[in-house]
């Protein structure tokens, strides 16, 4: 591609992006295509000769876009958000254009130094103490895997990497059943084995681990010859926003000499508002904390902020030092690839810099507080609507509800979710609470307005009457 053509198509892509964002309200939120419909329109084999950009771009618009679920749609209320504020998209255009591989300080000093600064800005923003250092991971799953590997290494006196799976069968990790499945996967991938992930029963409305049961399980395991290594706590679990009593978990961990990782992938963004910090009271005692600015803060996917009270443990677990990666004589600098499983790294800090400077913390706080307020108001309206039941109360901007109907309540609510998503005005997903289907609602879109909560209410009530 020559310079002029690159310039033309780059501006065309940026213009397309702006038009796309403007058109979102008029599109169905979830892709309305059937399985295989998109694949069926893609050539069976790669072209032997190059094609015209006009044709490729046209196919993007006619084949690909209809098969996209619109995660930036203001009425995306499913899962958790993957918010990309327009300003972070602009930063990503620049990152894409520069296309640096930022594995070491010397492979792009600005990327490393900005990352250090941005993680410190975020640390201050969410109220973590100055002792924490941060790194951007590609996902919360990777941060959790890294934390589990540190737990394994510390428990095995830094011999697990060398000794491998054979050294691990008696390691134990503790969590509730409210944590994300990425925790289960970290346990398998680290070789610890799912039988050694001990589920602690939850108590109370917040569905947090029973700390007395946690201490008892650790004691019992020690007596039985297991090696308790760490605890994974959650603030804002994926299903219904469960929150462990972090202070209580940390107290048990300190008594038992265990490592604590806190997964606040979604809820962590809300900690920029002081009034929500009681949800993770005691977090300053944790060893490792992750939250995803790409979920609710507006930093384009992907961007996971991973904070560590002692990053040396992580580096000791993950760093690799082949000759070609040695930075000869440049001690005192950070090579973030030593803090994560992947070696190669994108320049992820730029979008945070743009985002935080453009909106300021007060702008982001206003967005989060609005979402919480609108979700609470919607829960109240549904509670007062005949046939509806609030199953779990709002935790920040997430609650779950159920509609009474039909002889099989689960089938009825699944049918309602399907009807809602086929309708296209809003997008919701279901979960299971105490064995029964419930419908989740979370407000978190950067471009959401109060009227979108109104549309959600009308759509849910209207379709509930129609579903049989
Ligand atoms: N933890 C929680 C609480 C989540 O909700 C999710 C995803 O939604 C994850 C972890 C996994 O996040 P990631 O996709 O960044 O690995």
Compose a concise summary of this entry.
The protein is an alpha/beta fold. The chain folds into three domains: 3-67, Up-down Bundle (dopa decarboxylase, N-terminal domain); 101-346, Type I PLP-dependent aspartate aminotransferase-like (Major domain) (Aspartate Aminotransferase, domain 2, 3-Layer(aba) Sandwich), CATH 3.40.640.10; 360-466, Aspartate Aminotransferase, domain 1.
| CATH architectural category of the largest domain | 3-Layer(aba) Sandwich
Number of domains: 3
The best one-word shape is globular
Tally of contiguous helical segments? 14
Please indicate the percent range of residues in DSSP E strands (runs of 2 or more).
Answer: 5-15%
């Amino acid at each position: 591609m020559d310079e002029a053509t690159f310039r033309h198509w780059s501006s065309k892509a940026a213009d397309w992006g702006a038009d796309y964002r403007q058109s979102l309200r008029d599109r169905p939120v979830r892709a309305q295509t059937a399985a295989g419909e998109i694949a069926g329109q893609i050539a069976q084999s790669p072209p032997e000769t190059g094609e015209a950009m006009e044709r490729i771009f046209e196919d993007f618009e006619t084949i690909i876009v209809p098969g996209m679920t619109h995660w930036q749609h203001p009425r995306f209320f499913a899962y958790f958000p993957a918010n990309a504020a327009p300003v972070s998209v602009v930063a990503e255009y620049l990152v894409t254009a520069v296309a640096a591989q930022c594995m070491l300080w010397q492979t792009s000093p600005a990327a490393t130094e900005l990352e250090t600064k941005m993680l410190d800005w975020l640390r201050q923003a969410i109220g973590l103490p100055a002792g924490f250092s941060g790194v951007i991971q590609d996902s919360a799953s990777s941060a959790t895997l890294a934390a589990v590997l540190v737990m394994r290494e510390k428990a095995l006196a830094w011999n697990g990497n060398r000794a491998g799976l054979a050294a691990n069968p008696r390691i134990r990790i503790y969590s509730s059943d409210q944590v994300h499945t990425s925790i289960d996967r970290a346990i398998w991938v680290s070789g610890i084995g799912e039988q050694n992930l001990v589920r602690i029963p939850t108590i109370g409305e917040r569905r947090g681990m029973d700390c007395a049961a946690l201490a008892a399980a650790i004691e019992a395991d020690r007596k039985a010859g297991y090696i308790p290594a760490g605890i994974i706590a959650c603030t804002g679990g994926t299903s219904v926003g469960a929150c462990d009593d972090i202070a209580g978990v940390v107290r048990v961990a300190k008594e038992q000499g265990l490592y604590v990782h806190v997964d606040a992938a979604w809820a962590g963004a809300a900690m920029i508002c002081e009034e929500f910090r009681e949800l993770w009271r005691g977090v300053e005692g944790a060893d490792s904390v992750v939250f995803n600015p790409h979920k609710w803060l507006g930093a384009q996917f992907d961007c996971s902020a991973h904070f560590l009270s002692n990053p040396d443990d992580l580096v000791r677990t993950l760093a690799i030092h082949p000759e070609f990666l040695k930075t000869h004589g440049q001690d005192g600098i950070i090579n973030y690839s030593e803090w994560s499983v992947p070696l190669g790294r994108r320049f992820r800090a730029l979008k945070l810099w743009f985002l935080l400077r453009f909106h300021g913390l007060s702008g982001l706080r206003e967005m989060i507080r609005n979402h919480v307020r609108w979700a609470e108001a919607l829960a109240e309206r549904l509670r007062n609507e005949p046939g509806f039941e609030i199953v779990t109360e709002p935790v920040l901007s997430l609650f779950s509800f159920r509609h009474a109907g039909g002889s099989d309540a689960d089938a009825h609510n699944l049918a309602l979710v399907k009807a809602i998503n086929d309708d296209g005005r809003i997008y919701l997903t279901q979960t299971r609470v105490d064995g029964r289907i419930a419908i989740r609602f979370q407000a978190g879109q950067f471009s959401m307005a109060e009227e979108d909560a109104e549309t959600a209410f009308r759509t849910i009530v209207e379709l509930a009457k129609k579903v049989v």
